[in-house]
Amino acid sequence: VKIIxxxxxxxxxxxxxxxxARPGETIQASTLSRLPGGKGLNQSVxxxxxxxxxxxxxxxxxxxRWLVELLREHAIETHLIREVAEPxxxxxxxxxxxxxxxxxxxxxxxxxxxxxxMSSVIESxxxxxxxxxxxxxxxxxxxxxxxxxxxxxxxxNAAPFDAGLRDLPLQQLDHLxxxxxxxxxxxxxxxxxxxxETLTRQLPRTRIVLTLGERGSRCRLGDxxxxxxxxxxxxVDTTAAGDCYIGYYLAAxxxxxxxxxxxxxxxxxxxxxxxxxxxxxxxxxxQDI
Length: 289
Ligand code: RIB
Description:
globular, binds alpha-D-ribofuranose, 8 helices, 289 residues, four-stranded mixed beta sheet, alpha/beta, nine-stranded mixed beta sheet
């Protein structure tokens, strides 16, 4: 089984600060790092480090060639990545002393994937393949519809949340990955139990995976629910923990493991990730966990 990931490639500017800047406040950062990131890239790196066979599709500007090179170093197929005239997407990430973050995104090339390229992505898939995407690239609605009509298993990470996600053909998804914010935005409910109950009723054929940080993760399909606790860890930086979880979960799933085992492996990987700084650089290799 091949996993095709249609996703963002970002340059992350990571600032470490005492606390996240408040409205109207100016504060000094103690460090600045320029690192590879983007939910798409992070998830491809996690898939590859977990041992899956991955093709990444997306777009960069000429300033993002080093991101494509990084994917190649992980043996990720990159022939579905285009170089476009826009600058590469970037993120401004503040990380406070407790490891929490806030992120400002500039989509750039990630929002300029040509329609013809999306068609090539779908043509490159065969039924049974897994197509993963996130909400940082353009036209994911069309991608979900066309791919699922062809019998491709489509998985969506509903991050970052915006109201447009509610209008997507979510009922065609095989897996929907959400955190509490995304779950609340999609369901209009607040507690994990209510979020899962509401989304399960709306999307009866979709497995919903809800990540809850230090409270672990829960997964629901119809009446079947699995809950797994988080692995204990000292938090350094939570950036990309969700991406890491998704990559490890799907890599384990395509190995044929049961859902509980996928969730346990993914939780261990995510815990390792929050113990390190940065996005892609903080994702473990399989032997680390
Ligand atoms: O999930 C973390 C990622 O979100 C960062 O790498 C940043 O680029 C944004 O896409």
